[in-house]
Design a protein that fits this description.
The chain contains 4 helices and 7 strands, in the order βαβαββαβββα. By secondary structure, it is α/β, with parallel strands linked by helices.
């Protein structure tokens, strides 16, 4: 079976502090809709959970958003759709994720996935890949972020990039 080429667009940003990471999460949340998958990539401590908490808070109004590190998944009700926050760090094989409700999350909810590489081929191609990196050892609070919108996310990332450059 031959796969069709998925259109993709990438925007790269410099985030000077945690507040900038949270603002970006709120902007991405404003673009999210049912069926969206947002794959959060990056090393331990780089800000994936901070991003997820701000994203969830923007859509639900909840101030306290726990990390699903030990439960593997937390769900939140939002007006637009249920938000599924997955932290797959402790998984050792993609098959272990089947019991977490992935099918329902991917079809009707908004999925935020920390450590998405743990899903292997179960990770949908139509998604937003958000990669956070430490900018430098000299500035531990500064991050770089790359947002790659694939398929349905591609035009939204273009619009987000344009919005960010016009308001910078």
């Amino acid at each position: 079976m031959m796969r069709r080429a998925m259109p993709s667009e990438t925007v790269s940003l410099h985030l000077p502090n945690e507040a900038a990471t949270e603002r970006l999460a709120e902007q991405v949340a404003a673009l999210a809709r049912p069926g969206d998958v947002i794959a959060l990539h990056g090393d331990l401590g780089v800000g994936k959970t901070r991003f997820a908490r701000a994203f969830i808070g923007r859509l639900t109004g909840e101030a306290e958003v726990p990390s699903p590190t030990f439960t593997l998944v937390q769900t939140y009700e939002a007006p637009v759709a249920a938000i599924w926050h997955f932290d797959l760090y402790r998984l050792t094989a993609p098959e272990e994720a089947i019991e977490l409700g992935l099918e329902e999350a991917f079809s009707t909810g908004i999925s935020l996935i920390e450590w998405p590489d743990r899903l292997g081929p179960s990770l949908p191609e139509d998604r937003l890949d958000l990669t956070l990196d430490f900018a430098s050892a000299e500035q531990p609070e500064v991050r770089t972020v790359s947002l790659t919108g694939r398929d349905g996310w591609a035009p939204r990332i273009v619009a987000l990039g344009q919005s960010l450059t016009h308001h910078a």
